[in-house]
Records
---
Amino acid sequence: MSAPPSPWREEIVTQMRLAVPLVLVQLGLLAMGFVDSAFMGRVSTVEFAVVSLGHSFAFLFLILAMGILTALDPIVSQAFGAKDNGAMARSIQRGVVLSLVLSIPIGLLILTAEPVLNALGQPAEVVPGAARYARILVWSVPPFLAFVALRQSMQAMHRLAPLVYVVLLANGLNALLDWILIDGHVGFEGSGSQGCAWATVISRWTMIFLLPWFSGAEFRSLLLPFSRRTIRWRAISQMLTVGLPIGVQFLVEIGAFQAVLYLMGRMGTQEMAGHQVSLNLASVSFMVPLGISMAASVRVGNEIGRGSSAAVRRAVTVSLIGGALVMVSFGLAFYFAPLPLARIVTDQEEILTVAILLIPLAGLFQVFDGLQVIAVGCLRGMADTRVPMLIHMAGFWAVGVAVGSLLAFPMGLGAPGLWWGLVAGLFATALVQLWRLRIMLRRGFRRLVIDEPHEGASG
């Protein structure tokens, strides 16, 4: 008779089965922007900067809504662990409704691109094109946010294969449309950055139409019939109590990187483009700890739903050790091979000159970035969202942006100075988030229940 499997081995296997597809999904979503950048980087430096600036401006507002919808992580994962199908169905439906409501203010905010970018002192030759790009991208906001709501729900239920299939298909479509619309093929005139924007719009609508079809009858049964209990202000307010701090946290983090991009723009188009190349590469490797973070959030939520404190602690330990090992490996690659990595994105020599100075710094900061995102994922699985938000505010802005600005301008370090600020900010953030996680692990865990009058929400 064989011995029962080790709970540690089971946890490692379970997290790998979750994390690998989630990393593929995240890489697939990132690949759309990466492919866009690769096409635009071969058009011209200005067109490359147009797409970088327009996309980053739109994403700054999208990330707030994405964070709010990420409240589905602890809600659905804990309901899944507790085998509460009714709560799962209402939460998923509520997420879809909320995604469509959020699309309206987010779209209106994106339309402010031109006056805001001008006020921020961005390059005059880039702003008009970036604003046109952002205006087109508004048409993709409703399907993208609805996709996010379904994605968060499906990953919380360990239903990952449909997500992988849909994202892979959307990537193929996006690359084909980039080739047709940016460069001009099969009878279409090349339209550069505007063609790039329309390729993204079409791909995102395709994703939201395909996902319910690929998800299977069991998942679709949670979407329909629509429950009258879905639209209840008390339930929605509880969801916002959890989700809004996550949205602000996402906004704080992405906003810090956007602030660095705008500060690079004040130095010139070359510095801004070099920064974007380096950030694109760092974003690819960051998808691995982000996937691990999502898997950790799901596992922590599942085990809280089941009422197993020991399993929660085991899930946290496995995710942190695995993430640290992976990110140290990526960091070494970035430090020792900056030029070959930069050439993957662009062959423009003036951009490469800046990028090779920044990529080694990306290798350093992403180790800390990986640790903080995994710690935050574990905290999110516990529905602890407010304190991590405050930690992000202090780490990314009071340390990261402030120190970077000081090094770049008064002290004259230029573009590398801004990135040294990011290193300092991420180190501080990781340290304090890990401290917060340690505190939470010492406390008892309680399931987050939405829409039940006899139970309150924690968070």
---
Amino acid sequence: MPEITAPGTYWLKPLASGASGTAYRIASPFSSAEYFVLEYRRKSGTFESSVPGSGLLVFRINTDFDSLGNASYNPAGGIYDELYLFRLNGDSTANGTLNSAHFSNATGRTRINDTTATRCFLHDGTPGGIRISDIGPAGDSIQFTVTSLTGVAGGPVRPSLRGTASVSFAPNPLRDAGRFSLNLPAAGRARIAVYSVTGQLVRTVLDADVTAGSHSIAWDGRDASGSRVAAGVYLYQADISGQGQRGKVTVIR
């Protein structure tokens, strides 16, 4: 997918056209894990006739949640959307109006930035840092202008939740008991918790200050009450000094 790396005016063709030039990627200046995808959906043809309207769509992709999708969304457990479609009055706590996600001059929604009614934001609600304006008519193509790729001057770049520490679990699949292998580049507070696929906390297996280096933490396949968990897929999250990693464990019985 081509990436926009400089301000300017750009065009997109309808996604269903099968032609090239149907999507762009824009990196967030404030996150190394999150980026944005722009597509043009035109309300016509067999596959696109059911969309609410023709226009530019802006998605946010969070690579920290690769393969988890959106079904596991659970902010309390630190699990957020892998894919989010920006829409009118939507934010990190409000769903907004999904039928008003498309931009064009006909809708009156012709720009998106950190402060517009359809606001650009990262998974935690902080500014996303892109500015798109002058979105034109939804015709054979759609035009828009990227006016900034730097966001607020001096704004910090949030590192990916990956790469600062590593965590894995073995054996996977798990039948009886296994261990989390945790490697920390620096000392810090560490928490490892296991969740169901619906986001319910199953058990916190670690919540303590941990020294730098390698650590092994046991999990016996039981929940907080001491009962063996049922067979199925479980999610784990390791949070270390405010950052973390996520993965899956399959339990077989």
---
Amino acid sequence: MTKDDMISFTKGLAINFRKKNNLQMQDYEDIYMEGIIGMLTALNRIDYSKKK
């Protein structure tokens, strides 16, 4: 999973969340940014040296 895959995946989640909860576009932008920040943070925390 590349960084671009993660970003488009997050965008999809944010759009679905916004539609389900009838949120405005501004809320969607905030959720989307939070999601990207969270995913990038998770990517940075993965310790690749332990993988065989």
---
Amino acid sequence: MLWTWIDAHAATGGLCLVLAALGGLFFYLRLPATARLRHAGLSMPRAAWLGLAAAGVLALLALAVMVRDMLGLAQPAGCATCTDWPVLDEALHLWLAGHATDAWVRPVVAFTQLGNVAWMVSLSAAVLALLLWRRDWLHAAAWVVATAGVGLWIRAIKTSVGRPRPVGGWVPEGGFSFPSGHSAGTFVLYLMLAWLLLPYLRPAWRWPVGLAALAVALGVGTSRVVLRVHYGSDVLAGWLLGLAWMALVICAVEWAQTRVAGRRC
């Protein structure tokens, strides 16, 4: 019953989250300077988050093209930018079906649990509780918008496209296939967590932690194709969605912190 309601209102909920985030950002910038400066240390150089913003825009455009193709709004025969995803996906799916064995599928099943919904919700709640305990209101709000928002967008796109899952998966999965929720969710969760840790890490550890988070996100997404519960394009779309949403949230916070620190954009 709950998921049915979410499916019907996911796009509206995602839009409301964006509007709520913009409203929260507005009121954050109007707080007294002492309140804002409590956690106003910049976690990324300006060039880095501007680069992330550009990557997010490109990811969003690529995702829009993929959704257009999946909805059949333009036919590949008459569209130079269209890709015949079903043909590519089926070729990869058949290749995996002929090469997968129990011996190497078992560890993949274990690894994909890093994108399990129950685990990610538990981790999200723990991180949120820690941020609230530290009274880090800006990052707590960003964390909620990032993790809850990507879930809403996943549901909205899945319902709109309505693509069935591949047949013959190694693990039971229900619901629609496009985009991969594991891919988008882990991309946002683990990379947002790495970003939150940046101010507390020594410079030598920042790149390794960020790359480790990226490796987990890419690994979980790849595992969904290996287990034949998603097509390759589902996972690619999930990564693009995760990158675009994460970039929006992080860049909004970094911009707000830049304003608080008195720097000019």
